[in-house]
Design a protein that fits this description.
17 helices, 69% helix, elongated, mainly alpha
Length: 338
């Protein structure tokens, strides 16, 4: 019809009708004929646009529509373009977790809560089924999850549903995979700080509170030395107004649990390293300085308990000449021994 009508109004109506029909039904085997006819008419109208301005504008809109849909080239209006399909194998690959993992991680930064939740569900499911596909992407995954904790757990009002999905995803990573063994210390420390912050600020949702407590226990049990370093760093924040006394006290409680875990593990290298770290803290903050405040006195009490426990259980190790050489000349830990 488009190539045969003689009426200007009929031709304009035909263009408009095609604009509605093509999105619904496609072009089928008429594509080549339609493109040739449309470009020919448009070319003829372009010779004198002012003669039929409305019809010319309609033809422009139709040609732009065909360009947008990919039926004709943006530079060669008069030539139909070739189109190839993705192979079956590549189409199948696009649906595999090893490819989808990229989109899941990107979706964690979406502004749409539902998109984030769907990504978290997919990640959690894959962590249970085949966690090794995350190995090359572990840093990106952990950074995205930590950022999600940092962003959404402090939102007001809290997004409890989203926060539970984030927390469960992290718990799945620690509970059901060995990926936790390769998480760098800097990420463990940030996770510890996040858990301390949100637990000390208080969480009204019971399940979410339980999951965060379980997470910090997993960090202590599975990333013990990294957690010890993080908790000792947290205790060192006692003079930082950014953190409440409640935050410091929770850090002390967790430090005590972490110290007991180190002793239970009986790894002599970890025992020695932990005492060196405590000694470094006492070099930075003297016992007299710490005991000048109530929270500082509490810190000294916790450190003293740990140091005495180590000397009681591992005296032969920490009293050895080899260990003594590793300590600085100012050995504060000995002032804590009963």
């Amino acid at each position: 019809i488009l190539g045969k009508v003689a009426s200007v109004n009929a031709l304009q109506a035909d263009f408009n009708a095609l604009l509605e029909l093509i999105p619904k039904y496609g072009l089928g085997n008429t594509q080549a004929d339609l493109i040739n006819t449309a470009t020919r008419l448009h070319s003829a109208l372009s010779n004198n646009p002012s003669k039929n301005p409305d019809l010319y504008q309609t033809s422009v809109s139709f040609i732009e529509f065909l360009k947008k849909k990919g039926f004709i080239s943006s530079t060669l209006e008069s030539r139909p373009i070739s189109r190839c399909n993705l192979s079956t194998k590549i189409s199948a690959k696009l649906k595999q977790p090893s490819i989808l993992v990229y989109q899941w991680i990107v979706d964690l930064s979406s502004q749409d809560t539902q998109v984030i939740i769907q990504a978290l569900k997919a990640i959690s499911q894959q962590l249970k089924a085949e966690p090794n596909i995350f190995e090359p992407h572990l840093e990106a995954l952990i950074v995205s999850l930590i950022t999600s904790v940092h962003t959404y757990f402090q939102s007001d009002p809290p997004q409890n549903r989203l926060c539970k999905y984030i927390a469960f995803c992290l718990l799945t990573l620690f509970n059901e995979t060995t990926l936790k063994n390769t998480i760098p210390q800097i990420f463990v420390q940030q996770l510890v700080y996040e858990m301390l912050t949100h637990l000390s600020n208080g969480i009204n949702e019971t399940v979410l509170n339980q999951v965060l407590n379980a997470l910090i226990v997993k960090l202590i049990n599975d990333c013990t030395m990294y957690a010890f370093v993080a908790l000792l760093s947290a205790i060192n924040e006692f003079n930082n107004d950014q953190f409440t006394e409640r935050w410091i006290r929770l850090a002390l409680k967790c430090f005590e649990a972490c110290g007991n875990t180190i002793c239970d593990m009986k790894n002599e290298d970890n025992i020695c390293e932990s005492l060196i770290l405590v000694n470094q803290m006492l070099t930075k903050n003297s016992i007299d300085e710490l005991e000048s405040s109530a929270i500082g006195t509490k810190i000294i009490g916790i450190l003293k308990t740990y140091v005495n426990l180590v000397f009681e259980k591992f005296g032969d190790v920490v009293n050895s000449k080899e260990f003594q050489k590793k300590l600085s000349s100012d050995v504060g830990i000995y002032k804590l021994i009963d």
